[in-house]
From TrEMBL:
A GO CC term assigned to this protein in UniProt: membrane
Top-level taxon of origin: Bacteria
GO molecular-function terms, A-Z: ligand-gated monoatomic ion channel activity
InterPro entries reported for this sequence: Iontro_rcpt_C, Solute-binding_3/MltF_N
SMART domains (UniProt xref): PBPb, PBPe
Protein name: ABC transporter substrate-binding protein-glutamine-binding protein
Domain Solute-binding protein family 3/N-terminal: 1-220
């Protein structure tokens, strides 16, 4: 499985029993899929912009990294049923919350986003006048925000809330961009992976129906993220 472990609470690194491990709600879901398949889960960590490439070249069977199943991506990959409906927010410095309350205020801002993601493309499309800083690592983007080098970071709302909860000087802005219908998180698979997709969909449906994926998110929120 290919993932990018810098996106708490979905996938991130944390000290577990004294060891640095990749954890998070998506990782627990991937383990449930592996258990259903009767195989050992092997996690390959990489930057987000390499995750789908790893899947496409056959180096991974699944890609699980908070990936939105966009129409463009569906032309190249198969996707599971959605397991999380996206909400995307701006993380800002707490002192600037009142400054960024509408889209006009963001037009002159320097906005960071993770390279190759839906939040990045949304900024390009909806805030063309803003300065976009595309970075490989989400932790790097947040560091740039804290250092005053960018004004906001565009990311999935649970990730933004996680950073805000752990950093007193950060907050989630009330302004947001318009989401496209259907841009939900799903597991990516290579084209024509019908048998594997059937198992993945079955597991995801159970996790959603029984509230298990939500419990994975709550469990992940209690863990402390560590940098690589």
């Amino acid at each position: 499985m290919a993932t990018s472990p810098d996106y708490a609470p979905f996938e991130f690194q944390s000290l577990v029993d004294g060891k640095n491990q990749v954890v998070g709600a998506d990782i627990d879901m991937a383990q449930a899929i592996a258990d259903e398949l009767g195989v050992k889960l092997e996690i390959s960590s990489m930057s987000f912009d390499n995750v789908l490439t790893s899947l496409q070249t056959g180096k991974a069977d699944l890609a699980v990294a908070g990936i939105s199943a966009t129409d463009e991506r569906k032309e190249v990959f198969d996707f599971s049923i959605p397991y999380y409906e996206n909400k995307i927010s701006f993380l800002v410095r707490k002192a600037d919350v009142e400054k960024y309350k509408d889209l006009t205020s963001l037009e002159s801002a320097n906005i960071a986003a993770q390279k190759g993601t839906v939040p990045e493309s949304m900024v390009k499309e909806q805030l063309p006048k803003a300065q976009l800083t595309s970075l490989t690592n989400m932790g790097e983007a947040v560091n740039e925000l804290q250092a005053g080098k960018v004004d906001a970071v565009h990311m999935d709302e649970p990730v933004a809330l996680s950073y805000a909860a752990k950093n007193a000087g950060l907050a989630v802005a009330t302004v947001s961009l318009k989401m496209k219908d259907g841009d939900a998180n799903a597991v990516a698979l290579r084209k024509n992976s019908d048998d594997l997709k059937e198992v993945v969909d079955k597991v995801i449906q159970k996790l959603k129906d029984e509230g298990i994926y939500q419990s994975y998110l709550e469990k992940a929120a209690s863990l402390t993220e560590v940098e690589e």
